[in-house]
């Protein structure tokens, strides 16, 4: 059976940019989150995005971060390591935010590990959708955990059937689903214990 074809375009599912087209770059490992999964995820996050700071660590097409911005997030950073993909993301963001005094979305061309190591901000929602062939290590998840605000949310997409990792202790499973090869979970991040 041949692998599923990657769409050349996606659409923003909801919010102020609803229906706007997002190009999907042709790049190895890029696997955009399909519309129905994004719709499910953002239904789960309903009421939690207004004023939120969101981080899309493996941005690719930018669909997750752009959807968050469309639905009321106050600040969104999309991190993408592929230079050509990052350039296309910057073009997409410029088109979507044309005429805005203070754009709320920006793209950073960096690896996720480099961005996490240099980041000094905390985030209310973090999207983790790495290429299936480069899953996150337990150390990487622990490093990312340090960036998430108490009471924040982490969306994590993996290949269904891959071995389970030990997740940070603060991540409490909230909702989960599966679509094709992808298994996805939304975690709420508990308050750090004081000691």
Overall mean pLDDT stands at 89
Secondary-structure element order, N to C: EEHEHEHEHEHEEE
CATH H-level superfamily title: Vaccinia Virus protein VP39
Number of helices: 5
Q: Give the CATH level 1 class.
A: Alpha Beta
- Major sheet attributes: 7 strands, mixed
Enumerate the spans where pLDDT stays under 50 for 5 or more consecutive residues: 1-5
Instruction: State the total count of DSSP E strands.
Output: 9
Structural classification: alpha/beta
Describe what you observe in this structure.
The chain is α/β, with parallel strands linked by helices and 195 residues long. The chain has one domain (36-189): Vaccinia Virus protein VP39 (Rossmann fold), CATH 3.40.50.150. 24% of the residues lie in helices and 29% in strands. It contains 5 helices and 9 strands, in the order ββαβαβαβαβαβββ. The protein has helices at residues 35-44, 63-70, 83-96, 112-118, 138-145, and strands at residues 9-11, 21-23, 53-56, 75-80, 105-109, 123-128, 148-159, 171-179, 182-189. The chain has a 7-stranded mixed beta sheet with strand order 5-4-3-6-7-9-8, covered by helices on one side. β4, α3 (83-96) and β5 (105-109) form a beta-alpha-beta unit.
Reconstruct the topology from this structure.
Layout: E1 9-11, E2 21-23, H1 35-44, E3 53-56, H2 63-70, E4 75-80, H3 83-96, E5 105-109, H4 112-118, E6 123-128, H5 138-145, E7 148-159, E8 171-179, E9 182-189
Parallel strand pairs: 3-4, 3-6, 4-5, 6-7
Antiparallel strand pairs: 1-2, 7-9, 8-9
């Amino acid at each position: 059976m041949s692998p599923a074809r990657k769409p050349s375009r996606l659409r923003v599912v909801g919010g102020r940019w609803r229906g706007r087209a997002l190009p999907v770059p042709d790049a190895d490992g890029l696997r955009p989150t399909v519309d129905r999964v994004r719709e499910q995820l953002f239904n789960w996050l309903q009421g939690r995005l207004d004023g939120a700071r969101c981080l899309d660590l493996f941005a690719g097409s930018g669909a997750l971060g752009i959807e968050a911005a469309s639905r009321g997030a106050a600040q969104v950073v999309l991190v993408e390591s592929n230079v050509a993909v990052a350039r296309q993301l910057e073009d997409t963001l410029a088109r979507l935010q044309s005429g805005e005094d203070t754009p709320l979305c920006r793209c950073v061309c960096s690896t996720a590990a480099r961005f996490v190591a240099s980041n000094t901000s905390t985030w209310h929602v973090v999207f983790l959708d790495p290429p299936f062939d480069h899953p996150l290590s337990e150390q990487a998840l622990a490093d990312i955990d340090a960036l998430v605000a108490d009471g924040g949310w982490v969306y994590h997409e993996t290949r269904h059937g891959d071995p389970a990792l030990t997740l940070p202790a603060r991540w409490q499973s909230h909702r989960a689903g599966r679509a094709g090869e992808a298994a996805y979970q939304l975690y709420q991040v508990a308050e750090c214990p004081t000691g």
